[in-house]
Each structure stands twice: as C-alpha cells, then as structure tokens.
Write a sequence for this structure.
C-alpha cells in the first residue's frame, strides 16, 4: 500500500472552497465505445472550472481485465502480435490522456483498477497515464493525505 501526502498551497486570504474530485471507471475502449466522451469532458471541464484537485480510482482504459490478461499471456503470442497489442493500449491511453490533460498538475495520484494493459517492458497503461499527467502512480491501494500549506496574504 502506498502512503502519500499531496500538498495544496493556498494564500491565507483565499476563501474559495477546496474541491477534491475523483475520476475513474472510464473504461475507454476507443471511439465508438460505450464511454460517454461528452460527459467525461464535461466532468473534466467542471473540475477545471472549480480549480479542483483530482484522485484517480482506476479503470481508465478497457483494454483487458484480469482474465483477459491471463488469457493473452498464456497464448504465448509472437512478438509482433504483442507489439500490436501494446500499440493499441498506448493509443487508448493517449486518447484518455488528451481528455484528462486539462487536469495535469492537479492530479494527486492514480490508483489502478482491474482494467489495464501490461506492456512487454513490464509497465502498465495506468503507470504511463500517471507519467503523462505528472501524477504519482498509487498501485491498487493507497492512503492519500491531503496537506494544506497556508501562507501569507
């Protein structure tokens, strides 16, 4: 379990509310999939408008679930097939990143759910999304402490 602190800096004179949003269960499978892109973009826009900090709760892409990963690994595909799967997962991850990009720098961390892809080099789609968003990858469980640094006027 990850134990992390995320510091929110505020001026003492700032009386606006501090908003912490969550984002997860996107399960994006590409254009034409079941994810409501317009609702997701609206939510991201609302978080931006509220100057919210965000915590990710997993299942960002819908490439594979646990059983799907097990079946793919046991299939022992040629390296070229694995490369195609890696490229497809990276494309989905990049598409989700483009939607979440306005939140970059305000994401306290990303948890991993059970829908993710493991690349041939060992990292996962959730780890890569964390890197893209400049957020800490939190694994499957974490204790996140929001710490408030109040300074000056």
């Amino acid at each position: 379990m990850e134990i992390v602190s995320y510091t929110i800096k505020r001026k003492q004179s700032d009386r606006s509310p501090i908003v912490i949003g969550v984002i997860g269960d996107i399960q994006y499978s590409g254009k034409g999939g079941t994810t409501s892109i317009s609702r997701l973009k609206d939510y991201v826009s609302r978080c931006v408008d509220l100057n919210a900090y965000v915590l990710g709760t997993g299942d960002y892409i819908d490439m594979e679930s646990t059983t799907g990963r097990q079946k793919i690994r046991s299939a022992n595909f040629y390296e070229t097939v694995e490369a195609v799967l890696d490229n497809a997962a990276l494309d989905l991850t990049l598409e989700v990143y483009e939607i979440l990009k306005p939140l970059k720098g305000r994401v306290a961390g990303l948890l991993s759910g059970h829908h993710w892809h493991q690349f041939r080099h060992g990292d996962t789609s959730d780890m890569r999304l964390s890197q893209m968003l400049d957020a800490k990858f939190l694994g499957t469980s974490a204790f996140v402490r929001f710490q408030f640094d109040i300074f000056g006027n």
User: Anything to note?
Assistant: The chain has a mean pLDDT of 93.
